[in-house]
Amino acid sequence: MIAPARRISYRILLQIAATDAHSDDLLRSPDVDALSMQDRALTTTLVLGTLRWQLALDAQIRALLARPETKLSAEAAIALRMGAYQLLFLDRVPAHAVIHDAVELVKHSKERGAAGMVNAVLRKIQSSQHRTQSAFQAHPAWMTERWVQRYGAEAAEAICQWDQEPAGSALRVEPGVELGGIETEPGAFLAPVRRVVRGDVGRSAAVREGRVRVQDEASQLVAEIVAAGAGTGATRLRVLDLCAAPGGKTAILAERLPNAEITAIDLSRNRLESMRRMMPEPLRARIRFEVADASKVQLQPEWDRILCDVPCSGTGTMARNPEIRLRVTEADLPRQHARQAAILRNGLRGLRPGGRLVYSTCSLEPEENEAVVAEVLGSGTEFGVTPVARILDRLAQAGIVTADGRNRLLSATERDFLRTLPGVHPCDGFFAAVIQREQEAGSRD
């Protein structure tokens, strides 16, 4: 009998290999929820660990094949990867159970003839006692080469090491909310953030009821930058969130700007509806939801604050989305750049004189970040970049960014931009640029 965690992990990995499905969504499926707590934890470990180390595991597996150039079927490859990951990285898992289940998984698939090969390769790995150590080998060479060139060898190594560890959980916690059974510590930057030390976040009543939200700290910081300086008493402030789903940043804008008119736009109706359902009722009532293409929606220069958190490669989030490294190619970046520039241009059209737009991504690649800002702003004088350090100082004065957090963020300020690097900073990798439209004479402040 195949262990339930291995059976479901194998099925999830097959689906990820064959479709554009995301591990995060599949690990919250009814099949996974029906497992015992121990099996849920093992399923998460197997799926994410195998994806994190897939490139390095494949290299090791190929070297042990009788014919290394042989193209393996998805069924055989995934059984080998998952088995190799357990043998090399999970010391408490019995090797005989790992090999038995890997062979049985293949026997029950259309590739049953590969069972002998899977058995032989995994037994070689078991006897070799060789563990893949290099986090660089677990990333595409084009990525690591770019990071070394752009950020230096030490930072590139820190990024790769961070990507290979389970992503931590940061919580958005307002004063007076009891977490119940979750042990936390202060966030790295923001006063409302608590980082989970131990405890099952999914079992917390505060999380299930929406009184506490799980959201990476750098993501929260971007939303705080958008809201900074507006004041809770601002009336008729008009705020636009382009590409709003899944809605974490929108929720922060609604919290910080209770009297503002907030419109959330997203291209996906399903994602927008999911965002609406997950949003706590008091916040949902303050937000207008609209399905639209952020690069084409007709905007008038009437918005005081605009957030352009654009779709991107996501290379700053690979600790929690490890399949990104298997899907994104260097050739994708120019296409992403063109789409991002179109959204930013359109967003700027909607900015009133004196208004502020924040352009952000969760990418580490300059083509998606400062190159987009440089291309769109060009040599024009109507829009200008506001140094993000000035906004961070304002957030520190308001007590939103802590004193220690402001010091940590000194290394996240590059030129006029915000740039967090995973491993260098204890969060996802985010980029943000603050763009201001020139104030017209006689316009309101």
CATH class placement of the largest domain? Alpha Beta
- The helix fraction, in percent, is 40-55%
The fraction of residues assigned to DSSP E strands is 5-15%
* Unreliable residue runs: none
- Determine the number of helices (DSSP H or I, runs of at least 4 residues): 19
Largest sheet properties = 9 strands, mixed
Radius of gyration: 23 Å
CATH architectural group of the largest domain: 3-Layer(aba) Sandwich
The SS-based structural class is alpha/beta
Give the overall pLDDT as a whole number.
93
Compact overview of the structure:
With 445 residues, the chain is α/β, with parallel strands linked by helices.
Characteristics:
globular, 9-stranded mixed β-sheet, N-utilizing Substance Protein B Homolog, Chain A, 445 residues, 4-stranded antiparallel β-sheet, Rossmann fold, alpha/beta, 2 domains
